[in-house]
Write a structure and sequence with these properties.
By secondary structure, the protein is an alpha/beta fold. The chain folds into two domains: 148 residues, Rossmann fold; 141 residues, Rossmann fold. The protein is 34% helix and 17% strand. The chain is built from ten helices and twelve strands. The chain has a six-stranded parallel β-sheet. Strands 9-8-7-10-11-12 form a six-stranded parallel β-sheet, sandwiched between helices. Helix 4 links the parallel strand 7 and strand 8. Helix 1 packs across helix 10 and helix 4 runs parallel beside helix 5.
Length: 312
């Protein structure tokens, strides 16, 4: 199986398409080991709207694709045009800005699909966005990992409120704690954590590499994520570790007007997949989730069942 990934260069979008591509190729290699398998990145960030709309991939020296994947609104036209000229399937890992029927399949997080929306068989629903994180067996689960975000559209960033929760965690947690920030974290927050919680190892995002989070998720006994960092919540759940939520005040408390991000997080809290700090404070324990997320694998299984010609 040969897959082309049409990319806008954004980390979150790449995580989705690469996660799905790797899951598909893993199954393809198991079922058709004699065939050639792999994925190729197609960067369209510098192309004009006209160039995307009529993109044919004439400059590509890759094997003919069986599937074109994309994520990100700016990739839609280029992916569809490329798939049309290469005569292969085209799928999108998000709710597209184009009609669902434009694609052979749309892999869409459930919180992006309000109840009652007519998907007409063009949609596979996932719990959160797909990612490439998987549980790693045979390694010592030796640390508590904390992933900190920052100001966002949905939540009010309150450094003192977060520090109070971190101080309580540091006091009641017996395993070593390592914390990292994000690009959105206020500049002085890492220093504030070091001062308030000297037992925590603080690694500002500027000192970490591209695999830092994945490497530490592999060895985490439990993971805490600030409420604004929803994509990190889904990656943490995919690692197999129990996941706690560091709480933040919401900007809009009207339940009828909550965003898709808040709606998705509320679903996780309601079904017991994650534990809020308020609930953890009662017992000092994060319950294990009922199941480990493997949405890339689940989507790959569905795709191969629905489109068996991908393995022909």
């Amino acid at each position: 199986m040969i897959i082309y990934i049409v990319s806008d260069g954004k980390r979150g979008h790449l995580s989705q398409t690469q996660g799905l591509a790797k899951a598909l190729l893993e199954r393809a290699r198991e079922q058709k080991p004699e065939q050639e398998h792999g994925y190729y990145m197609i960067d369209i960030t510098n192309k004009s709207w006209f160039g995307k709309f009529f993109y044919k991939g004439k400059e590509l020296a890759y094997p003919k694709p069986d599937l074109v994947l994309c994520a990100g609104h700016s990739t839609h036209f280029a992916a569809l045009s490329l798939a049309r000229h290469k005569k292969c399937l085209c799928m999108v890992c998000m709710k597209p800005s184009l009609p669902l029927s434009s694609f052979d399949l749309c892999i869409i997080p459930r919180h992006d699909l309000p109840d009652g929306e007519n998907t007409k068989g063009h949609v596979f629903q996932t719990v959160g966005a797909i990612n490439a994180i998987r549980p790693v067996e045979g390694v010592d689960k030796k640390e508590t990992l904390i992933l900190v975000g920052g100001p966002s559209k949905e939540f009010i960033w309150d450094s003192e409120f977060v520090l109070t929760q971190l101080t309580s965690l540091a006091r009641r947690t017996t395993t070593p704690i390592v914390l990292t920030t994000s690009r959105r974290t206020p500049q002085d927050f890492a220093a504030d954590v070091s001062n308030a919680c000297p037992s925590m190892k603080v690694e500002p995002v500027e000192t970490t590499g591209p695999t830092w989070v994945a490497d530490h998720l592999a060895t985490a006994k439990e993971v805490w994520v600030t409420q604004d960092s929803v994509s990190m919540v889904y990656e943490a759940l995919s690692s197999g570790a129990p996941v706690g939520i560091l709480e933040l005040p919401r900007k809009n408390r009207d339940a009828q007007k909550c965003s898709r991000v808040v709606r998705g997080l509320n679903m996780l809290i309601e079904d017991g997949s994650v534990c809020t700090f308020t609930e953890w404070a009662k017992t000092g324990v994060i319950p294990h989730s009922k199941s480990i997320l493997n949405e890339a694998g689940r989507a790959a299984d569905y795709i191969l069942q629905k489109f068996p010609k991908l393995l022909s």
